[in-house]
Design goal:
Layout (H helix, E strand, L loop, with lengths): L5 E10 L3 H4 L5 E12 L2 E7 H4 L9 E11 L1 E7 L13 H13 L5 H17 L2 E7 L4 H13 L3 E4 L2 E2 L12 H15 L5 E7 L7 H13 L4 E6 L3 H10 L6 H7 L7 E5 L5 H10 L2 E4 L1 H6 L7 H7 L2 E4 L11 H13 L7 H8 L1 H6 L17 E5 L4 H7 L5 H11 L5 E6 L2 E5 L3
Parallel strand pairs: 1-4, 5-6, 6-7, 7-9, 8-9, 9-10, 10-11, 11-12, 12-13
Antiparallel strand pairs: 1-2, 2-3, 4-14, 14-15, 15-16
Helix pairs in contact: 4-5, 5-6, 6-7, 13-17, 16-17
The chain binds guanine and zinc ion (ZN).
Cofactor: Zn(2+)
Function: Catalyzes the hydrolytic deamination of guanine, producing xanthine and ammonia.
Protein name: Guanine deaminase
Length: about 425
């Protein structure tokens, strides 16, 4: 893209830090009538429109949304693209849901054309919902990774993905072997990692579907390719936890299965982490690893309530995850709406600025991508969304009674979904514009 300057005028809001560390007031920056200057895919400057407009060359076109809020693009720290077609398939908890709904649908992703068709639809949904980056599960098939990365590359999205490793306890057609999983992952890392904005995540599905040998080779991939990420599931469901204990009797805990193979470190992300002892939680925090809080999924599958308060107390990095297809919405606004309720059920509340942090800067930190995405500060990649305060009659009516920014933001998180996302920019380029 050209290094021509583009200017966007609206209210601007972004997180500076975690409200749990610095307090709410110091955790964000808000400009009521701001100007965002973008060139060459990056944010060049921002400030009050009244200050920046006079200095702008007359050739720079200014797009103005008088009734909108610009925030960084949302970051989904845990999602499965092949499960787009099974959202809402209910009736079971995790292990039965995997056998009945998930594995049958994942079998279809051996077909590269089908995988690409779903990847294209999936990425369209992300953009419609204001999500500009995600850590994504494909399937065991290398074709499913190629398809996903090819579509993401076309749109210059910052995305993380990596072939699922699973060599047992699943239909044979979905299983690799430790050796084939290792070799295919290596080839995919060489093909995709660091290409444009793409990054690779070594992705053992979960301890229940991986042998010791496979987990050992996953650790080797991480050691041999220091920049790649690790993505897996951890302690999501009580039956799963006791089953994993029976599969690995020599390990002291579910987390220890991963730690034993060198999979717990600063580039690791564990989805769910609900049924976890205090000691494991401390170990995760000390390692610099992150967890994904997936409230719609945890409620849909009846998995349990994630303890965000404990994560804050122990300094454990947390991002928000839709976990489509166990999760029920692509919208991170709706996901945060459910996170609020999960907090309420545990006697706490979710501050709207903490919610903003989880979906933006907190997600970037969880993925080790802070400094690049998750913020509107100059130098960051220009992934941002334009959110329409008047998207629905109810929002419009409700916001007439809302005074403060905190209250308006809380209402947006409660009532908002894809309808509020007016436009989504990726590396400075508009990639979704709502009709109407
Ligand atoms: N654990 C292992 N595989 C999966 C999956 O596909 N979804 C969820 N929610 N948990 C898992
Ligand atoms: Zn998942």
């Amino acid at each position: 893209m050209s290094d021509q300057l583009h200017a966007y005028r609206a209210a601007l809001l972004y997180s500076l830090d975690d409200p749990a560390s610095v307090g709410v007031a110091a955790s964000y920056r808000h400009l009521e009538d701001g100007l965002l200057l973008v060139a060459d895919g990056r944010i060049r400057a921002l400030g009050p429109a009244a200050e920046l407009l006079p200095g702008l060359a007359p050739t720079v076109a200014v797009r103005h949304w008088p009734d909108a809020l610009i925030t960084p693009g949302f970051i989904d720290t845990h999602i499965h693209y092949p499960q787009t077609g099974i959202v809402g398939a209910g009736g079971e908890q995790l292990l039965d849901w995997l056998s009945r709904h998930t594995y049958p649908t994942e079998l279809r992703f051996a077909d590269r054309d089908y995988a690409e068709q779903v990847a294209r639809f999936f990425i369209g949904e992300l953009l419609r919902n204001g999500t500009t980056s995600a850590l994504v599960f494909p399937t065991v098939h290398p074709e499913s990774v190629d398809a996903f990365f090819a579509v993401a590359a076309e749109l210059d999205l910052r995305m993380l993905c990596g072939k699922v490793l699973m060599d047992r306890n699943a239909p044979p057609a979905l299983c690799d072997t430790p050796a084939s999983g290792y070799e295919q992952s290596q080839a995919l890392i060489e093909r995709w990692h660091g290409k444009g904005r793409l990054g690779y995540a070594v992705t053992p599905r979960f301890a229940g579907s991986c042998s010791d040998e496979q987990l050992h080779l996953a650790g080797r991939l991480l050691r041999e390719h220091p920049g790649v990420h690790l993505h897996t599931h951890l302690a999501e469901n009580r039956r799963e936890v006791s089953w994993v204990r029976s599969l690995f009797p020599e390990r002291s805990s579910y987390l220890d299965v991963y730690a034993h193979h060198g999979l717990v470190g600063p580039r690791s992300l564990f989805a769910h982490a609900i049924h976890l002892g205090e000691q494991d939680c401390r170990q995760l925090a000390a390692s610099g690893a992150a967890v994904a809080f997936c409230p719609t999924s945890n409620l849909f599958l009846g998995s349990g309530l994630f303890d965000l308060g404990r994560a804050e107390r122990l300094g454990l990095k947390v991002g928000i995850g839709s976990d489509i297809g166990a999760g029920t919405s692509f919208s991170l606004l709706q996901t945060l709406n459910e996170a609020y309720k999960v907090e309420q059920l545990q006697g706490r509340s979710l501050d709207p600025f903490k919610a903003l942090y989880l979906a933006t800067l907190g997600g970037a930190r969880a993925l080790g991508l802070d400094g690049r995405i998750g913020s509107l500060a100059p130098g960051h990649e220009a992934d941002f969304v334009v959110l329409d305060w008047n998207a629905t009659p109810l929002l419009q009516f409700r916001l007439q009674q809302a005074q403060s920014l905190a209250e308006r933001l809380a209402v947006l998180l409660t009532l908002g979904d894809d309808r509020v996302v007016q436009e989504t920019f990726v590396a400075g380029v508009s990639r979704h514009r709502r009709e109407g």
